[in-house]
Amino acid sequence: MTDTTFEPVRKVVTAIPGPKSQELMARYEKAVPKGITPGYASVAEFAEGAIIRDVDGNQLIDLGSGIGVTTLGHRHPKVVEAVKAQADQFLHMAAGITPYELYITVAEKLAANAPGDFAKKAFFMNSGAEAVENAVKIARAYTGKANVAVLDHSFHGRTNLTMAMNHKSVYATKMGPLAGSVHHAPNSYPYRDGLSGEEAAARTIEFLEKRIGAVDLAAVIAEPIQGEGGFIVAADGYYNKLIEWCHANDVLFVADEVQSGIARSGKFFASEYYGIEPDLITFAKGIADGMVLSGVLGRAEVMDAPLPGRLGGTYGGNPTALAAANAVIDAIHEENLCEEALRIEKGLRAFFEEQKTKTDVIGDIRGHGAMFAIEFVEAGTAETTKKPNTAAVKTIVDHAFANGVILLTCGSYGNVIRFLPSVTLTDEQLQDALSVIAEGIAKL
Ligand SMILES: Cc1ncc(COP(=O)(O)O)c(C=O)c1O
């Protein structure tokens, strides 16, 4: 029986990873392919809120939330209750065969929470990549055009189509041929390109016009805050100009909010930071607090373009996952969780602004809400060449892990530490984790 008595604090009781974790990892290596080797070798046994207890009894502060998934914390009571209640009702009901009310309710709630004063529809799949694939299908069906454009530093998934949509080649190495009709356009990366939103948009649009031509372009797919690419927040006005151009040219704008959506950024959808109204939005990760769910949401007339039978899949919109999503959406409002995300941003920003006065390896501090990141550069290059400092990131992340704090990295140059904690992370837990990170920074 798993011991579920739990004090929600960091505890280090063995070297991390401890002996039981090491034993299990030896089995893992024999049983699981190298392609999904974990970043951390501490094996989880129990989790609650922002704390994971491993099999050796260490309690780690989880600042990654299973890559931005458990936004409400591990096993949020309302989510657990909803899932259990649904399990007593039915576990599977292919909505394309036998519909059920929960499917409709969650679609309605998502539409009500998305930007844009127009009729919207939503449907459900299982993974972020599947959601992106479906958004592309819908955009092609609606416009009758084949080409799509993505932005530099983007990440959209690991399926065949989405492999072609990623900026970094490593996700597709030796796994081609990649899908065609996907074009990579320059993005807005204020820290590195120094361009205003208007200038960066002009550069993107020039590329789209020259390289593809609006007449052949179905959609631009972009992450409002670029996730894997380094939590890049576009310059003010960038997305507004880009959407303006899209709509003037019968091109759809798809916001991939798989990582940035569902209260993570301090808004229900991060698109709201720019005041944009995407035609389609993909969502996943935080929507069901760990249950398996993703989907596409968007303008009703666009969503209706694929004919009956052209969308869906056996498992898309599992009832227990939708029960979790229903509870997540309600909890976001009932518990003011967007405000909680902003509380976390405040704590992180204050800490790193102070650290920046003590070290010259912090190049950029950016993000929104509980989607926050630090870009590390070589000493003295923060304002000049901005040389990526991957060694600093490794030192800090290794120190954090050894001391019971799970930190994730990202960035096209591998030099960004990203914070994706649960928005229910307490101030005490955050400050404790930051004290460990301060020790890591002091080691540099
Ligand atoms: C913006 C974005 N899109 C798509 C995906 C792919 O999601 P999944 O891993 O669930 O397929 C991710 C995953 O990190 C993501 O961050």
From TrEMBL:
**What GO MF terms are annotated?**
transaminase activity
> Keyword set for this entry?
Aminotransferase, Pyridoxal phosphate, Transferase
Pfam families per the record?
Aminotran_3 (PF00202)
Cofactors named for this entry: pyridoxal 5'-phosphate
What SUPFAM superfamilies does the record tag this protein with?
Answer: PLP-dependent transferases
The protein's superkingdom reads Bacteria
Q: Which family does it belong to?
A: Belongs to the class-III pyridoxal-phosphate-dependent aminotransferase family.
Q: How is this protein named in the record?
A: Aminotransferase class III-fold pyridoxal phosphate-dependent enzyme
User: Which species does this protein come from?
Assistant: Pseudoclavibacter albus
Lineage, please? Bacteria, Bacillati, Actinomycetota, Actinomycetes, Micrococcales
